[in-house]
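Below is a filled-in request sheet from our internal design queue. Each sheet records the structural input a requester submitted and the sequence that came back. We keep these sheets so that new team members can see what a complete request looks like end to end.

REQUESTER: design group, bay 2
PRIORITY: normal
MODE: inverse folding
CHAIN LENGTH: 159
BACKBONE (tokenized):
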């Protein structure tokens, strides 16, 4: 199985999301651990990796999120552990593979890379999201575009 993981999952697993409950943190850790048995999808230009690195904070011993980042860095060019997908930039939509849909015009530009690599991969991987409500607010047009989002901390998505 292939998977796309939003950087907020790493931040949540590391306890950096103040709104996350204990079970949300635990579930985010579980998703990260399970991803090592899957194929993680990144963009070839390194935007996803840059977002992962922004979540990095040094600690001893290393956290699960830090170990995951190290795993990704060590296997960045090792298929099938990591798939690097070309995600061509687009001035208007962020990425060529981001859906042309007015209902998605307000979707966070930083998160568009995850949608683009999921669609460009042709593998229909789920996108893992922990605490970012933007994914919830746009779940219907994303679903119509063929994007499956796994809401790890669904309780945070409800009004």
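RETURNED SEQUENCE:
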């Amino acid at each position: 199985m292939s998977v796309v993981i939003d950087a907020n999952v790493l931040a949540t697993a590391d306890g950096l999301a103040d709104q996350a409950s204990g079970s949300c943190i635990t579930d985010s850790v579980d998703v990260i651990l399970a991803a090592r048995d899957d194929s993680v999808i990144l963009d070839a230009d390194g935007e996803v990796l840059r977002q992962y690195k922004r979540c990095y904070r040094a600690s001893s011993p290393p956290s699960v999120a830090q170990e995951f980042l190290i795993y990704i860095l060590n296997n960045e060019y090792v298929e099938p552990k990591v798939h690097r997908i070309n995600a061509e930039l687009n001035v208007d939509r962020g990425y060529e593979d981001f859906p042309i849909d007015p209902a998605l015009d307000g979707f966070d530009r930083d998160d568009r890379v995850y949608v683009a690599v999921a669609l460009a991969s042709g593998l229909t991987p789920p996108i893992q999201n922990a605490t970012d409500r933007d994914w919830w607010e746009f779940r219907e047009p994303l679903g119509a575009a063929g994007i499956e989002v796994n809401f790890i901390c669904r309780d945070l998505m409800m009004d």
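SHEET NOTES:
- The domain at 2-156 is CATH 3.40.50 (Rossmann fold).
- The chain is about 40% helix and 15% strand.
FILED BY: M.R.
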